[in-house]
Amino acid sequence: MTEQVRIELKNVSKRFGGDTAVDDLSLAIATGELCVLVGTSGCGKSTTLRMINRLIEHSDGEIHIDGQPIREINEQALRRRIGYAIQSTGLFPHWTVARNIGLVPRLLKWPAERIEKRTRELMALLGLKESEFNGKYPHQLSGGQAQRVGVARALAADPDILLMDEPFGALDPITREALQDELLRLQARLSKTIVFVTHDMEEALKLADRIVVMNRGQIVQQGSPKELLSAPADAFVESLLGGRDRGLKQAGLIRVRDVMHPTGARRQTTAAAVGADDDLRQALSVMLLHRLSSLTVVDERDRTVGTLGVDDIMQRKSVPADKTDKVQTSLEASDDATDAPGTDARKGDAVDADAADNDTAPATPQERRDER
Amino acid sequence: MSAETLPGVSEFPWRRWAAPFAWFSALAGLLIVMPHLGPLFAAIDPEAREPIYRRDAFVDLLTNHLLLVAVASTIAIVCGVSAAIMVTRPWGRDFLPLVSQLASIGQTFPPVAVLALAVPWLGFGGLPTVVALVLYGLLPIVRNTLVGIGEVDPATREAARGMGMSPSQVLFQLELPLAAPIILAGIRTSVTVGIATAAIGSTIGAKTLGDPIIAGIINGNTAYILQGAILIGVLALSIDSVFARLLPSRH
Asked: Is the CB of residue B44 less than 8 Å from the CB of residue B226?
C-alpha cells in the first residue's frame, strides 16, 4: 500500500440480516481523487459510502484510511475528520447558517474566533454573502442555498476526505448544474479526496476522475469517464450510460478546440458559431438546430479562431485514447515530475487558496481531463 | 414568575406578561377578599349556617394544593421525559410499546380509583394524592416527548451523527431543543389538569382547595363549594397563562 492511497476497501461486505448489500468489494481511492459511485437504487453505493465514516459498520473485510483500519479509530473522531454532505442537507433547523457551518469546528473545540473566521471563509468560498446569510435559518433558504451551506458545513474543519451522498439529487437541473460546476471549481482549488454517490450517470461523467459502477453490491466496472464510454463492460453499464445516447455523451467529453481547423484553413465562415471551449455534443446540437454541416468557432471574446465541420467530428480519432489508469493519473499529481498542466494547476491552487488562482484552474471537467 | 423579582425591570416585557400578572393579581385579591365576602355568599346560599369556609385559611389550602401539584408534576416530568428519552434510544427501543401503554393506562385509570387503591398501602393524606397525580399526569408528558423527538427529521439526526456528534450531543443539541415546545405543551396539559385533579385529594385527607368543596357537598353548603371551585379555577388559569407565555410564539 502506498501512502498516496487515502481510502482503501479490502474485500468489504455488508449484510443486513440475510441480505447482502455490499458483496466482497475492493476499492482504492487515491489522495485528491474524485471518485463517483454510480448505480441504481439498492446497488449498495450509499451503504459503501456510509461504511467509510462508520455510520454503517462493515460486516467483513477491512477499510483503511491513510493505512489505518477505521475500526481502530474512535467513530466520532473519525467522522469529525471526514466531511459529510447528504441530499436533504440535514441542516439543524433551529440553528443559523453560521452556527450550522461551524458545527464540526465547535465539536473539535476550536476557539470561537477561529470558528468565526473559518465560517466567514467558507461562506465566501461557497458564494454565500455573509451579511445576507449569516443569521438566516435553514427554512429561509432555497434548495441550492441550503446545499451550499451543507457543503460548507462538510468542509468546515478542513477534512482531507469528503463523502457526498447524492448531494445535488433534489435540486432543479439549473441549480444542480451550477453546484456541480462549483464543486469542480472547489475541487480544483482544494484537492480533497472525494467519494461521491449518485444514480445520475450524467452527473458522474461530468464530475468524476474515476467512475465506479455498482450493481447488486459489487463493482461492475471502474475507470475514467472516457474509458467507460468507449468500452462499457456489459449491457448494464451500457444502459446506465444511456444506450444509444452514448455517442453523444462521448462527444460531450471532447472540446471543439481539439478537433477544429484553426483559422486560415480551407473553409469559409458560416452563419452559426460555437465556442472553442464548448464540447462536440454542443457543436452537434448547434449544427442540428441550424441545419448546417459546418460551423465557425469563436473564442470567449467572439473572435473567429477556426471552423468545425461534420466530417471533422466524424474523422476524429474514433476513441479518445485515454487508457491511463485513473488512479495512476491522480498519483502523478503528487509527483513533481509530472508535466500535466491540469494537475499542476490543481496542486498550485491547493497550496495558495486564493480566488485569483481561479484563472489558472481548469473550469470544466472536460478541460481537466483533456489537459491530462 | 413574578415580575418584581426579575432584574432589569425596566426591560421587562410587561405586555407579554400582562395576562399572567393579571391572573395572579386576581388570585391574590380573591385570597384577601374572600373571607370578608360573608354577606355576598349568604345571599347566594341563604340556608348556610356559616357562609365562609373557615376550618383552614384559604392561603394555607392554596399553598398545600400547589405543593402537592408541584411535587407530583416534578416527578411526572422527570419520569415521563426520561422514560420517553430512554425508549427513543437505540438500546431502549424495545420498551417503546410498553412505556406508551403504561402511560395510557395511567390516564384511563380514574384518579379517584387510584386513591381508593392507594390508601390501604400508603395511608391517608398527601402521599396517595401525589401518586394519583403522578400517574394521571404522566401520559401527556410521555406522549408529547415521544412525538417531539419523533418529529426530528431522520436526515438531520443522520447528518448530526455523520458530523461526529456523540449520542448525548445529538440528544441535547438537536433532539431536545427541537422537541422542547411540544414537550412544554405536554407539561402544560399535565400541570393544568393536575391542579384541577388535586382537589379530590381532599376525599382522603390531603389538605387542598378541594376541602371547602367536599365540606360543602357533605353539609349541603353551596357557598363552600363555590369558594373552593373559584379558587381552583383561577389558580389553574393563572398557571396556564404562564405556560402560554413560555411556549414560543411561532415566527
From this structure: yes
Cβ distance A62 to A14 under 8 Å? Answer: no
Question: What are the chain B neighbours of A79 within 8 Å (beta carbons)?
Answer: 161-164
Joined together, the cell numbers standing for residue B10 give: 425596566
Our measurement of the distance from residue B143's CA atom to the centroid of its chain's CA atoms, rounded to an integer in Å, reads 16
**Residue ranges per structural domain of chain B:** 56-246
Residues paired with A294 in a beta bridge: A309
Name the band, by pLDDT with cuts 50, 70 and 90, for residue A264.
Answer: low
Residue of chain A nearest B157, judged by CA positions? A90
Query: Mean pLDDT for chain A?
Result: 82
Of all residues in chain A, the one with the smallest CA distance to B156 is A90
Which SS3 state, helix, strand or coil, does residue A309 take? strand
Q: Identify the top-confidence range among A220-234, B14-28, B169-183.
A: B169-183
Average pLDDT, chain B: 87
Whether A76 has its CB under 8 Å from any CB of chain B: the answer is yes
Last residue of a domain, one of A189, A224, A247: A247
Question: Minimal Cα–Cα distance from B184 to chain A, Å?
Answer: 17
Judged by CB atoms within 8 Å, which residues 125-154 of B form the interface with A?
A: 153
Supply the range of the domain harboring residue A283. Answer: 254-315
pTM: predicted TM-score of the whole model, two decimal places: 0.76
C-alpha grid cell, residue B167: 449520542
Residue B177 to residue A94, Cβ atoms within 8 A: yes
For residue range B99-152, list pLDDT tens digits in order. 888 878 877 878 788 888 888 888 888 888 999 899 889 989 999 999 999 999
Q: What is the pLDDT averaged over residues A228-247?
A: 86
A99 CB within 8 Å of a chain B CB = no
Q: Are B164 and A153 a contacting pair at CB < 8 A?
A: no
Instruction: Evaluate if residue B220 carries a pLDDT over 90.
Output: no
The verdict on residue A371 lying in a domain is no
Alpha helices (runs of H) in A127-210, residue ranges in sequence order:
130-133, 143-155, 173-190, 201-207
pLDDT tens digit sequence for A189-224: 999 999 999 999 989 999 999 999 999 999 999 999
**Is A18 within 8 Å of chain B by CB?**
no
Q: Does the beta-carbon distance from A107 to B156 stay under 8 Å?
A: no
**Which three three-digit cell numbers place residue A228?**
467507460
Structural domain total, chain A: 2
A87 contacts in chain B (CB < 8 Å): 155
By C-alpha distance, the chain B residue nearest A101 is B163
Q: Band of the pLDDT at A12, cuts 50, 70, 90?
A: very high
Q: Give pLDDT, residue A91.
A: 95
How many contacts does A have with B, using Cβ atoms within 8 A? 57
Does A295 reside within a domain? Answer: yes
102-131 in chain A: CB under 8 A from chain B: 103-104, 107
Cα–Cα distance for residue pair A196/A166, rounded to 1 Å: 7
CATH class of the B56-246 domain in this structure: mainly alpha
Report how far apart the first and last C-alpha atoms of chain B are (Å, whole number): 24
Cross-chain Cβ contact B159/A89 below 8 Å? yes
B166: nearest CA partner in chain A: A76
Nearest chain B Cα distance for residue A316, angstroms:
47
Distance CA B115, CA A272 (A): 92
